[in-house]
Amino acid sequence: MLSLLVNVFKLRIGLLIALTALAGFAVTPGRDLASWQIAVLGLLVLMSSASAGAFNQYAERDLDANMKRTRNRPFVTGELNHNSTWLWGIAGLLVFAVTTAAWLFNAATAFYIFMGAFVYAVIYTVWLKRRSVLNIVIGGLAGSFAVLGGAAAADPNLGPVAILLAVVLFLWTPPHFWSLAIALHKDYAAARVPMLPVVVGDAAAAKIIFTNTVLLVIASLAPVYYGLGWVYLICAMSGGIYFLYKSYQLIYTPTKKMAMANFFASIIQLSLILIGVMLDTQFTRWEVF
């Protein structure tokens, strides 16, 4: 049952989204929260992300059935009934998360948490995924809204570091997902999903991934100018250089194996950025270079 819930609610990516929200809070000076309030903030973002993840699987049952990676998802196999009860439950989970955020924190936090779920569930899943090569580009705003939601819990008037971290999340999502799409090119082609590698080919997609990664790394270093210190700088540079190296390799070897290596490099980079934020705000809080 636990593995089933982790699958349908996409809790692995949800935990990462929750951590980005906490990073947004950590870099924003303003309201101090008790430990339990910070934990609840992360939980509410996780719940919002879970509702969007479950809706994604509910709405994409037909696509998932055509892809080797997803054909064993519970709505495809019949392990979960594909009925309106799930829609009510998903909506209820999101409403609870948003209203609780408004009550405990403020309206801005609630709005950003809602928008993160809305972008992923409606704009990405329903409107864009089957229609546009820009699907994951615009869908990347979902992670950005999580950062802004965490920041707004400290101060609804967003600061430059929180905004820059939101930009980092926006730029991170396309090369992360396009790398996976190169590895799963045949799956997306079979399901007729216009992911970038399917539309332009793996070699051209690899060049676009590298260009995007360059912009991402530059953006990830910008928060240092606005107050983050040497701990963050080391983490961001380490993860960024590694991701750039793997993206560069992907240009010359756009294979499934290299694409997966780049996919994991993207996760390492984001993890180091989040670790850098958390450590830096503890040890060098608001020291300006």
What does the model show?
It contains 15 helices and no strands. Helix content is 78%, strand content 0%. Helix 10 (160-183) runs antiparallel to helix 13 (202-221). 49% of the residues are buried. The longest helix has 28 residues, at 256-283. By secondary structure, the protein is an all-alpha fold. It has one domain (2-283).
Please name the defining characteristics of this protein.
289 residues, mainly alpha, 15 helices, 78% helix, globular
Q: What's the structural domain tally? A: 1
Helix percent band:
over 70%
Q: Span from first to last CA?
A: 50 Å
Kindly report the average pLDDT value.
Answer: 93
* Strand portion: under 5%
Low-confidence stretches: 285-289
Rounded Rg: 19 Å
Shape: globular
Helix count, DSSP H or I runs of 4 or more residues: 15
Following the backbone from N to C, one meets helices and strands in this order, namely HHHHHHHHHHHHHHH
How many E-type strands? Answer: 0
Structural class: mainly alpha
Sheet with the most strands, sense and barrel status = none
At a glance:
This protein is mainly α and 289 residues long. It contains 15 helices and no strands. It is globular, with a radius of gyration of 19 Å.
Write the layout of secondary structure elements.
Blueprint lengths: L1 H7 L2 H16 L8 H25 L1 H5 L8 H4 L6 H21 L2 H22 L6 H5 L1 H14 L5 H24 L1 H6 L5 H5 L1 H20 L8 H23 L3 H28 L6
Helix pairs in contact: 2-3, 2-9, 2-10, 2-15, 3-6, 3-7, 6-7, 7-9, 9-10, 10-13, 10-15, 13-14, 14-15
